[in-house]
Amino acid sequence: MPEKNSQTPQLPHTMFINGEKTPAAAGKTFPIYNPATGQELTQIPDASETDIDHAVQTSKAAFDSATWRRMPPASREHLLLKLADLIEQHTDELATLETLNQGKLIAFSKMLEVSGSVQWLRYMAGWATKIEGTTFDLSIPFPPGTRYNASTKRVPVGVVAAIVPWNFPLLMAVWKIAPALACGCTVVLKPAEETPLTAIRLAELAHEAGFPPGVFNVVTGRGETAGAALVKHPLVNKVTFTGSTEVGRIIGRQCADDLKRASLELGGKSPVIVLDDCDPKKAIEGAAGAIFFNHGQVCTAGSRLYVARSIYDEVVQGIAAVADGITLGSGFDAATQMGPMVSARHRDKVMGMIAHGKLEGGEILSRDAAVDADGFFVRPTVIANRACKPLSVVREEVFGPVLVAMPYDDIDEVLAQANASEYGLGASVWTNQLDKALRLVDGLEAGTVWVNTHNMVDPAMPFGGFKASGIGREHGKVIVDSYTESKSVCIAY
Ligand code: NAD
């Protein structure tokens, strides 16, 4: 599967700290790859504790200098809007970098990563001028004759450490930095070691837009070293993390020890529930989209399918046929419908989980998942689990194009099965029966429940997980609370 892109942009290969392109102090680097070819793309700085300290000190100095947090909110808004414009102007470059480094289809890089980032920045920019407190009357009776004027104001939380995964590299970075910067915080962002390119360009573009040096820094490095050093740095006031539940637990423990604020957006094992009135064609299309979008590398991927027994075979066989018809290849090739997994390690993990599912008694309905190519491809896979066994692919997040499908007989049974998961990120219900849809919406333990759609997100709609899928919510009005502290002011007169 040859790489078809001929107009490769310049590949960023330094961190971005204090408004400057910055290599690692010790000069160490590590390779990043093109997952569609398996070839090395470039070398990226492997940040050590020293580099992380430099970035955090820089960010702290920028916060303390108050040029950012005391800047008129409308000026912060203006800069965020300017960054959105610059991203839009660099759509082709950013989308190409994303597809080269992450493997997703170029149309999705443009539409979701770049346009999505622009949309989120513009929405969040608006919050900069709308952060407000409340005033209230107090009942303190002394000293006699004294009255009080009391209010709250929201102040930026301080230096934010933002750590993001590799599935939507640019968009996840913007989901963190846009609200943090709108609220007046300064940021050190660490992209995933697999996919740092667009995050570095994002910081360079922010500098070009006129953000003061040190307000937004990007460090590159490995999770256990650079990421861990960032989380435990004493000058970091808040950690905002998106990634696996396993790493979220480590970060949550460290933040609890340090009494740092933390928001955690973690893994998922989202159920898709098809009721018996659903048109099988619509169910096939919806459920296939819910799992195969972004090659299944989506935290809300609809990876557990529950179909009413009367239409189970038709729907599940139909999804297997969709899977078998999907063309794999380079994200730059117009004929490609699904790109590679992000890394060789991740491909091996996904292949291992498919093999394990089969060993445990799952019936593979689709073609062999193995692909003979240099890139890290896995064919979309549908596993029938008619006996509803507690297979590992039912319990554990695969984070790849792997669907496991179970039949059910009644709504209480399917609700219990859907909720029998440590995760609670997303869920979808496919039906036109309003009463049953609302019963499921009520009963499902998930941060987002979609009806007759799946995976849809919007900057105005809060997003986050129940249970082991995380703590806190991103987007919407609630995001302001996440990057600010409430300060009460009490004036005697
Ligand atoms: P990951 O947890 O392995 O890594 C995520 C980030 O954490 C990377 O930048 C990594 O370098 C860093 N990291 C790793 N170990 C660390 C440590 N000890 N200390 C600090 N940082 C560390 O996750 P991944 O494989 O990159 O991404 C896939 C996971 O992300 C899936 O579980 C997926 O569900 C989840 N995800 C969740 C959401 C959401 O909004 N809930 C969105 C996208 C992805």
UniProtKB/TrEMBL annotation:
SUPFAM superfamilies linked: ALDH-like (SSF53720)
UniProt keyword list: Oxidoreductase
Annotated transmembrane regions: none
Keyword Ligase: no
GO MF terms held by the record: phenylacetaldehyde dehydrogenase (NAD+) activity
Active-site residues annotated for this sequence: 265
Sequence ranges assigned to domain Aldehyde dehydrogenase in this UniProt record: 26-489
Name of one Pfam family that matches: Aldedh
EC number in record: 1.2.1.39
Family membership: Belongs to the aldehyde dehydrogenase family.
NCBIfam families: PaDhStyDPseudo
Name of protein: Phenylacetaldehyde dehydrogenase
Species: Paraburkholderia haematera
Gene: styD_2
